[in-house]
Amino acid sequence: MEMVIIPADQLRTMMIEAASIALKYNPPSIASSSVEPDELLTPEETAQFLKVSKVTVWDWSRRGILSPRRIGNQVRYLKSELLAAARPKGGKKI
What we know:
InterPro entries: DNA-bd_dom_put_sf, HTH_17. The longest helix is centred in the N-terminal third of the chain and has 18 residues, at about 10-25. This protein has five helices and three strands; from the N terminus they run H-H-E-H-H-E-E-H. It starts with 7 loop residues before the first helix and ends in an 8-residue tail after the last helix. It has about 90 residues and is mostly helical. The protein is rod-shaped and about 75 Å long.
């Protein structure tokens, strides 16, 4: 193998050109680069999302099944936590 000495400016230019070509033929996907913030739902929206009554949402919150977030005097639920709470936790399948 032969070692080649290249000036820093020439190496920088070659790297920029190579990166430009790589991005031209392999553009980054928008879906993987954008991160959606977690959505906050009202108790009513939570009940609709889980397809249960609002009373059930309050009961599950009281029992610790759901984790409400209090913002001033308002109650909100993180959508990601609702999805996690709806997943089976290794229990017996019916």
